[in-house]
Amino acid sequence: MRHVISILMENEAGALSRVSGLFTARGYNIESLTVAETQDKTLSRMTLVTRGSDEVVEQITKQLNKLIDVIKLNDLEESPHIERELMLVKVKTNDHNREEIKRTAEIFRGKIIDVTTHTYVIEMTGASDKLDAFLSVINNDIIVEVVRSGATGISRGEKGLHL
Amino acid sequence: MELSGGQIVVQCLKDEGVEFIFGYPGGAVLHLYDALFHQDELKHILVRHEQAATHAADGYARVTGKPGVVLVTSGPGATNAVTGIATAYMDSIPMVVISGQVPSSVIGSDAFQEVDMVGITRPCVKHNFLVKDPKDIAETLKKAFYVATTGRPGPVVVDIPKDITDPNVKVRYKYPKKISMRSYNPAIKGHSGQIRKAFELLISAKKPIIYAGGGVILSNASKELTKLTKALGFPLTHTLMGLGGYPATDNQFVGMLGMHGTYEANMAMHESDVILAIGARFDDRVTGKLDRFCPYAKIIHIDIDPASIAKTVRVDIPVVGDVASVLKELLHLVKETTDKPHKKSLEAWWNQIQIWRKVNCLEYDRNSRLIKPQYVVEQLYELTKGDAIITSDVGQHQMFASQYYLFDKPRRWINSGGLGTMGFGLPAAIGAKLAFPDQDVACITGEASIQMCIQELATASQYDTPVKIINLNNRYMGMVRQWQEFSYESRYSHSYMDAIPDFVKLAEAYGHVGIQIEKPEDVRPALEEAFAQKDRTVFLDILTDRTENVYPMIEAGKAHNDMKLRVALNTPINRELA
Ligand SMILES: Cc1ncc(C[n+]2csc(CCOP(=O)(O)OP(=O)(O)O)c2C)c(N)n1
Ligand SMILES: [Mg+2]
């Protein structure tokens, strides 16, 4: 099962490598990992996407909690939550496909943010599977590059991950 | 008070109550060593290799329960210390390692003797720090001691760049009395509801067993464990790390479990219906084949580390908390209620255990004309009345020590269980002897292991730590040879110890007493002589039976009820009993 784990940790040098090191050392897989400082500069917030059986994910959360710098964490899968990923896609354009690309991007609520005579850059946010869906309908031959941020997430309602 | 960074480190250690610091100097820690020079409160023990500094500090920590402290220089000094840090990490031993680092301004430039110590040690420390400002030293060291000694203990590395200890930069010094960390709050008290559930399951058990590990020692919970075990009347088995937690000479102790544990302990585990696991971590050397591990048992697991629970084996009733505190609560429940364990079932269970005991799985050939290693350990046990501190290295001798020396008290059995580090024994013995100069300290070792830190014989001379080295010399890496005999049709690939030094001369060269013996009848007199020389380090080189194996044994991939017994013992009678 896929799990999105939200982590609040001390904003110390090396915090990221403690987390990624734990995953390699124990053979857990990381699908994506995003990290940035929060409004409180002493804290950083990480969103980690992993896959594993319930037992493995239980171990992952325990091992993460055991890291001294980790203050709190939350497996977003346990309650309603919102997940968003940012994607930038550069595609080759020509007179025949420009309109269609634009339409498709609009259907997926993407925006074209850079235009040259032969390329578009499309910006799109959404749950990771929506971004996957968009890529699957675009002709692979015209894709120049794809950049994805990895998922970030937040729980719905009153619940929150804070001090 | 205004002090330099170097002075601050020294002052912090004093304020923390540190007695000994095990170390080795070098460029990056020269300022620190200069600060040490100006005082004599804090005793510095100069080892002969940084690995030994960590093992000696570790031995000190294991016998006292206090954190061991290490000081090494950057680069090679730091990397040499890594084996000992990993050793302490695997056995959850409190330790603070201060490593020098190249000056902040050149970090990252591949400077002379630069190594990323924080990066290298990350997977084998409880936590580590890089100090970036002399003003941060005191708080960082306070945190280091706090993290190392609380919760599940472990080693903490504090890496200090040279400029941070510069004698010309003075800052205000105040050692924090207390520290709290918002990201670190180890649980102490167990959940009462869980403890009650555990109690109810224990009372209902028909074939219970208590399986107690190193957590009992770390939590100083021997008294509580003993009282609870007595009150319940259950059999108890220890892991290699738990030995001494419960008195080994008591009838309720069924011996160690696991790969080289007793037949009765492993059979009782296999047949049990309820297991009370206390401060133990279901290591693969204990469980054997996981999918055949204790098929009939419900498991209660008490541990301070939630990540230890259900890591490899499913647990029915987890209790997260300090072992001593949880056991106290459990004991309270047992004493205050009228519910008692089912007497009839328990009697039948004990009868079954007695039958397994009759197999006498630790019996060996006592009529041999060769010195049997088991005999040496038995004699050592008798001579020291079971009251010596025994350190050990890794191999067959370690298993013989754990099987034949009966530990009635905690913190007497000092060995590298988790990492299995050869070279641990001698420096650990030195650390233990420094902590308890009036106690007999013996290091049971093998001719291969002892050579991994043999240089520490010099440290033993310099600091007058008269330990007794019991070298069970079988001229083989015995444990490796045994596996090769069993699993590789006796192809002894590189497990033969050639060019063994003359240990007697070697001991003498370092200023110690060396004695070699080859006959069984000389074992006892030689041991007596060694211990009679109270103020001398004595190296007993004992030529033992080369072909002796450790029995019983659960071979890799086998289950508890599938033990290999000593062939000679596998008589029809015993087979029937089994
Ligand atoms: C540093 C290290 N290297 C290798 C090993 C693998 N190993 C385990 S036991 C052993 C042989 C030990 O031989 P010796 O010290 O003579 O003890 P014996 O088994 O003969 O009693 C070896 C090589 C180890 N545990 N530690
Ligand atoms: Mg040997």
Describe the protein.
The complex is a heterodimer of chains A (163) and B (578). Chain A is of the alpha+beta class. Chain A has helices at residues 15-26, 54-66, 98-107, 128-137, and strands spanning 2-10, 29-37, 43-51, 70-75, 81-92, 111-115, 119-126, 143-148, 152-155. Helices cover 28% and strands 42% of the residues of chain A. In chain A, the strands form 2 sheets. In chain A, strands 5, 6, 7, 8 and 9 form a 5-stranded antiparallel sheet that branches. A 4-stranded antiparallel sheet of chain A has the order 2-3-1-4, with helices on one face. Chain A is elongated and about 55 Å long. The model of chain A has no long low-confidence stretch (mean pLDDT 95). Chain B is α/β, with parallel strands linked by helices. In chain B, strands 3-2-4-5-7-6 form a 6-stranded parallel sheet, sandwiched between helices. In chain B, α3 runs parallel beside α4. The radius of gyration of chain B is 25 Å and the shape is globular. Chain B starts with a strand and ends with a helix. At the A-B interface, α1 and α2 of A face loops of B. The structure holds thiamine diphosphate (TPP) and magnesium ion. Thiamine diphosphate binds at residues 393-397, 420-422, 446-449, 472, 474, 476-480 of chain B.
**Termini separation of chain B:** 71 Å
**Biggest β-sheet of chain A: count, sense, barrel?**
5 strands, antiparallel
Structural class of chain A: alpha+beta
Largest sheet of chain B: 6 strands, parallel
Order of helices and strands of chain A: EHEEHEEHEEHEE
Number of helices of chain A: 4
